[in-house]
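USER:
I wish I could look at a protein chain and see how it folds. I am handing you a single protein, as its sequence and its fold in token form. As I understand it, each token names a local backbone shape. I hope you can help me see how the letters and the tokens relate. The protein I mean follows directly.
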Amino acid sequence: MATPDKIPIPQSAEDIAPSWVQLVLQKDLPGVTVTDVDVKGLICEGDGNLSDIIAFDAAGTRNGTSQRYSLVAKLTNLTKPLENFGLEDYPQQIRLETVEVEFYSNVVADLLAMNSTDREIQAKGEADEDCPPDDSLFFPKCYFAANDPISKVSVRVMENLKTRGFSIKPNRLQLSRDEMMLTVGAIAQLHGLSHRLEVRSGVPLSKKYNQSILRESGYLSMDQAYTFGYVYGVQLLAAAFPEKTDLVARLKKFDAKSVLANAEKSPRLKVLNHVDCWVNNIMIKYDGDTPTEVKLVDWQLVQYLPPTCDLACLFLCCTGWDVFHNHRDAILAHYHQQLQQTLGPSESSGLKSYPLEQLKADFQADCLFGLVCRMIRLLVLPADQDLLQVVQEIQDWGVI
């Protein structure tokens, strides 16, 4: 990762020049020389509420060989009010950006180091099939991430996943069973590697990253916006299903801030959670119609929570009734299998002894957390019969 204090932060696409791109790339790619940059312009497959995503190609040489890199610069103007979220103050916005910058600058390096340890062991012939795969894992490669407190602009320079064949689901379509299988595998990697990092370092991640991403970050730093979003979401559900007065009355009893705070304060074992796993933050690669690989993007809300909080958010925000009701057990079992595989054979406690049946029970309990996440998004993920059936099943469990 490049050193932020030696690399200026671009204020716009006009600042993305060959000399700047060379500074960004040379830490990870020593010997690179960038001779030309072709800025493609804005690409925003998602909502584009927070940032401008600027695509560009960089051409040059490295060690005497011609090279071409397809990249994106994620630029955020931190003075732009987040009116869509009910936020208009700079401190709330800078926290979001700080979370993602710190995730890519610090957390990713730790997770990659943990994964690299496994690869080294595997190369020596001391590992078995339980080791995580030799891959770039579940996030895009990031070359540079930094905030500029003076200009109030934030930047992340990452690989362009779109040119590698990744895309988000069009029109916010729900994930299929197979797409969910891939996505929970990525979440299992995040959870498993973060847990191993905590076990091996002997330091709780809540303390390790206390001054960066886990203090005043994530949902709890936006309690005003999410309280507003939940209340408005329940109103939208009531308007969509006026006959469901009892269900709406039950939902009105919950306070979003308390639900999120209770998850953070839970005495259960915790791991790093993405917390924002909905369709616009999941990029999938296909071979024909078959999903083959997934990457999770937008890491502004990373939190230290029980693992089933991520899973509840994913199911409530990304699946319809068929996947939720008919394939949930198989998907949770796949997550559990991938989690154990990521943990590897050397771990003997913590998540390694987390039984599948307990995970299923925790998932049901944390569906209230997932429901809060979905209510907040009803403005962009409208209420439909699928959601109603899912919520009614959760009600039958006694969760609401």
About this structure: Confidence is low (pLDDT under 50) at residues 119-135. The longest strand covers residues 65-77. The chain is about 45% helix and 20% strand.
